[in-house]
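Escalation from tier 1.

The customer reports that the assembly of four entities below gives different structure tokens on two consecutive runs. Tier 1 could not reproduce it. I'm attaching the input and our single run for tier 2 to review.
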Amino acid sequence: MRVSTKGRYGLRAMVDLAEHEEGKAIPIREISERQNISEQYLEQLFATLRKAKLVKSVRGAHGGYMLNHEPEDISVADIITTLEGPIAPVDCVIEDDFCNYIDKCVIHGLWSELADAINGVIENMTLADLRDKAIEEKKREEKTVKEKIEVK
Amino acid sequence: MRVSTKGRYGLRAMVDLAEHEEGKAIPIREISERQNISEQYLEQLFATLRKAKLVKSVRGAHGGYMLNHEPEDISVADIITTLEGPIAPVDCVIEDDFCNYIDKCVIHGLWSELADAINGVIENMTLADLRDKAIEEKKREEKTVKEKIEVK
DNA sequence: TGAAAGTTGATAGTTAAAGTCAAGTTTATA
DNA sequence: TATAAACTTGACTTTAACTATCAACTTTCA
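Tier 1 run:
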């Protein structure tokens, strides 16, 4: 019942991209440095994200990655399901024919409820929400540092 | 973002136990046959459930396992967290000191929300709920079979 | 009363999948 | 042509899912 590093790192990388791209491509190396995630691993994640058309790539010097849609139009669910597959606690919530003996699967209702609860949360949060929160956090941080200096 | 077989099988086994125990211990062999789960694997799961005091064991001939509390008092969360560890999408929701650079972890709020959503579902469903549903399902099944025979 | 059978308890081993890292290849720009 | 970057592939590491074996305990029955 964990979100693996794929989802976690991928989400952080996407928030980073939303924060820093301003019409220009961001190379993986930059994200790697800021987020402290290995370049190789990020490359894999971005390959998947690119195939799902959540980001687009620019090859060659001065290349990198950019978002393929507005941050408002990319949900957390888009990113996580792309990287980790469909969010369902068990297969029989996705594949209808999996539960071939439904009488033995009274627990099915529970899993459906759980899937709905999870999806409700991650579908209603977008990259824009997270980016704005990140920017806000950073301002707060700066203010705190400033105050500390003034006290000294 | 999956519940592993530990949680899934364990939950099925516990529902089976709630359905069939009537003051007497149920051997693993029976549960294994009904639920089609290997005896060896079930033994492992029950060892964990026993240590968590969710079930108690009776050794020797005519022995087996019984619930250690009323089905109304055992939640799905009890069973799943016992078998799979705390339900949290990421560690930093459990361990406060994990998020040592909180400014890099704007996503923390999302994970907390997700954990709350999940726990809300599984804490509010008990073994009694699932057992009752299983019994109901079985009646419905019997009725359907009977109707089919009558039609013939 | 004692041996056989039924059952849990504990541990180690095997296989397959997922996660992670590393190195090399291709493409575009200057 | 050199460099910066995306892309691709392969290998290693960890974890999950079982499987197998044997020890310990308890009842049953001859």
